[in-house]
Predict the 3D structure of the following.
Amino acid sequence: MSFDIDPEILEEFIKETSEELDALDPQFITLEKKPNDPEVINSIFRTVHSIKGASAFFNLNHMRNFAHKLENLLDELRKGERKVTKNIIDILLVGKDLLSDMIERLSDGDMNIEMRPKEAKHLKIVEDLLDSEEESDTNILESIFERIDEVKASLIRDGLGSNALVSSLLLAIDEMRKITLDTDSEEIKDIPRLGEILIEKGLTNQGEINKALGKQKKLGEILVETGAVKEEDMNNALATQVEQTTEAVTETKKVAKKKSMRIEEEKIDGFMDLVGELIINAEVFNYLQKKLEIGHDLDKLRAEFKSANVDFNELTFSLQRRLAEVRKVSINGILQKLPRMVRDLAGGIGKQVDFSMSGEDILIDKSLFERLEAPLNHIIRNAVDHGVELPEHRARAGKDPIGTINVSITESQGELIIQIADNGKGMDAEKLKQKAVEKEMITETQAAEMSDKEAYSLIFSPGFSTAAKVTDVSGRGVGMDVVMTALKEAKGKVEIDTVFGEGSTFIITLPMSTTLITISGLVVAVGVENYIIPMEWVKESLRPDKSQITTLKKQSELVKIRDELYPLMRLHKMFDIEPRHEEASEAVVMVLEKEGKRCCLLVDEIIEETQVVLKDLGAAFKEVTGIMGGAILGDGKVGLVVSVDGVLAMTGVSSDEMKGI
Amino acid sequence: MTVENASANSAAPTGAKTIGSLDGKYLTFVLGEEEYGLEILKVREIIGLMEITSVPQTPDFIKGVINLRGKVIPVIDLRLKFGMAEVEPTEETCVIVVDIVGSMMGILVDTVSEVLDIGANQIEPPPSFGSKVDADFIMGMGKIKDKVKILLDIDRVLSTEELLRITGATG
């Protein structure tokens, strides 16, 4: 196997093709909804056609052949020679998946894409379909089932779905459908070998075949025997062959697996401009340095230094902004796979789901993109499996038999907000608590004290699964806790809003940038330590009067500001440090407010305003709830940034309770 | 937690290490009365003591974080981690920056001694008792000219699991 393909071109091909294939799924879903839209078929056709062409260029014959057959089928659809049916879409989708598999194999360094039994089998299905007349048996069956489905839907709609006779009839029909249409259930073992066919036909037996196979010689052996090549030379050549094969494979692997992204030339040019300005700026500093050494007019020097410094700061910030811009990719890369996933999942368990989404145009940082995919998929799987009910159950509850799942993505104040809403059965807080008690995850007392919101979050605990039986889709008790872990790593969180019987909404909130987060903050002093408080959540700061402070039971304190009460949090108590001012009226309180929660934070003194780059502190500090990260300060020391979420979580008094006081 | 545990385990592959595979270069340093060794491959650099920002809500042995050329890295006081008494820093106190599965960490030691080549025949298995340090943290005992160096399994000492333990005392 020797290949003279430029690895860079190959890499480009792999990347482009997998992107194109990913983009096909939503198009197939659209095709299913609008089977007569020529634009959709044409666009799918064009993609498959170009894959065929490119694979021919790379000598990937099996892939080319495979794409060619799919293209023929699409061509017939395009010309209107064949009607678009669910069956055909299924066949095309499986075909697309197999093409993706091949690309995956290619990117793993397997240049020798050979036909696999699964692929051979599917190729045969496509070929048979191409050979068949428009109304093939499966087509007829398919249209019969379509009609049955209509009858079934109207039975359910009329509330007859629960009738015992009717439901057993529906079950029988479903069974029949499985037997007649499910072609995936049996696997072809392997492509038969010549010897096997000969034996089968009774022309020879296994013993003869083995004898003959034994006589087959390898090229090397023959050459050595005929004296064309010396045995020693042959052995060396064989060793070289092994060496080169391994090298070639690892080399291709390395090339294909490197992380990379495509960047528009224009953006790079923008960088070059900025860097050019930076170099000029550096020159100005050099000039100033020289002037300083000689000792010139100080006032003039001060002014010049200030202006150079202002330029420098502006340049650094635009450089940072542009770099962040370059790292961004469209979230559509994740979203476009969802309709297909929902369709396949729902179809597999007899559910009907109308899936919709919005916000595909939003750009997110590449690292966020990579972290978001798995948790989003999990929540949607969960919504299909546990949220949306079976059509007959929905009908009985007086709902439309077709459930809905909506994914909406918005961007606000530097955060990405993803809402996944279904109109399924919702969650029952009491049931969740009971289950957690049964599983000994919480005690009876804990359950009794738990708010509904806390109870919903139980589903994110490891080992918690509410499905009565395990299904393929979800319900193994792994999964939802993975969501939590993945989101925590991305510094995000998830909340659940649900009404029992009406549906659930999962709300994921994530910071937009995980690579470089700049924060405007206030540097505050507590005892000998300094901390940074993110300014975004600071509403005001003031020195309270003694009369404004009330102490409740359990030592919790309240501050009254313009007739409103706020819980008082002492940063020195939270962090266990010796304050300069124990008396609140000698210190400063900052009013913090975020997402409807608020409190007053007591610090000794506010020192200055600052701009910092947030740095992760690492795994050793992941249980420190009061700190969200570190930042290098102007003097080179590390400053700690206080987590407003962490502070608010520790108040222990909810805003509802505050109203009651 | 399952994810964390898995990574912590893979970070501490001591189970598979045999005495035979322990030979190599070690950086030795002093803590109290005893001398310890660190595989040189784990050591990134040695820096003098600089100002450490202490992090609240953490065990005592986590001294805090420092700025290492723009990176924020944690510093662990090995004396406290091993249950020894804290001492005032001296001129010789320094921080050894080590690589722990992709992330850097600093360890505070009394003083750094030398780099030693220790052969397999000079290494003995860790003692089951009689050491101040938890036997789990020891890969082996290097014996050079009557002197014993405790060869530390630094991946395990600084694993996330260990760092999240509430108490520093292990003896």
Summary: Chain B touches chain A at residues 1-4, 51, 53-58, 62, 64-67, 70-74, 103, 105, 160, 163-164 (CB under 8 Å). Confidence is low (pLDDT under 50) at residues 1-16, 167-171 of chain B. The CA atoms of residues 78 and 108 of chain B lie 6 Å apart.
